[in-house]
Amino acid sequence: MRVPPFHWWRTVLFLIPAISVYTIVLGTASLASSLFDTRGYFAHRCARAWSWLILATTGVTVHAHGLDRLEPGRTYVFVANHQSIYDIPVLFATLHWQLRIIAKESLGRVPFLGWHLRRGGHLLVDRRRPDRASILRKWKALVHKGLSLIIFPEGTRSVDGRVAPFKAGSFLLAIEAGLPIVPISVEGSRVVMRKGRLMTCPGHVRLTVHEPIETSGRRPSEARDLAERTRAIVEFGTRHAELGISSES
User: Fold this and answer.
1) Which of 22, 101, 120, 151 has CB atoms 3.0–4.6 Å from 43's, for a disulfide?
2) What are the pLDDT digits (tens) for 99-118?
3) Domains contained in the chain, number
4) Which domain holds residue 171?
């Protein structure tokens, strides 16, 4: 389907400048708050405001199904498929938990956004030389503070919308930390901004939150099976969301 040139000009002349302003202003507020709020709670409020502004400015609406399956205040590992850069603002704007992400180390060097990630308590990982012991130690520190994590176990964004195999490393850490995993199916964000493209279009994103999977009592050797089971649930949800069917898992 051919996209009108209007969306390209709208992205370049309006969206990019607007999002840059949001990032600088809220990133500065987040950094300032880190001087007195070591838990990063205010920084998270800045991230949620940033996410809401981006979605509203772009013209992205979100319909979330299954949030009633979760317990308010409980710590979770949210595991989602990755269709677009917009998945992050979609999840932050929709999930009312104190959220942190696992991101690649290089993102920490991006002005304002990266500085927010470093000071706001997010996990930055060197993918070339991952130190599992260090990651688990930092992960457990976040859990101790009652913070939940968002993970995209495919490792990269999907080009065609298909759900790629999930890497087992994050599931191993979840088992070792004893945290419940919440599979989330994201459908529609790829239309908003496709991988490798600058142009952004308005759209509707469907979010399906599935039943949490408890990891307490599981052995580390079960991480691969848990990754495959979670992927199957997420893929099932994306198919049903694409067809406009409510999926129950």
Assistant:
1) 120
2) 998 877 777 788 888 888 88
3) 1
4) 5-242
Q: Is position 249 within any domain? A: no
**Residue 248 lies inside a defined structural domain of this protein:** no
pTM of the predicted protein model:
0.89
User: Is residue 247 in a domain?
Assistant: no
Question: In this predicted structure, what is the pLDDT of residue 244?
Answer: 62
For residue 196, give the CATH number of its domain.
3.40.1130
Specify if 211 maps to a domain: yes
pLDDT digits (tens, 9 = 90+) for 115-124: 888 888 787 7
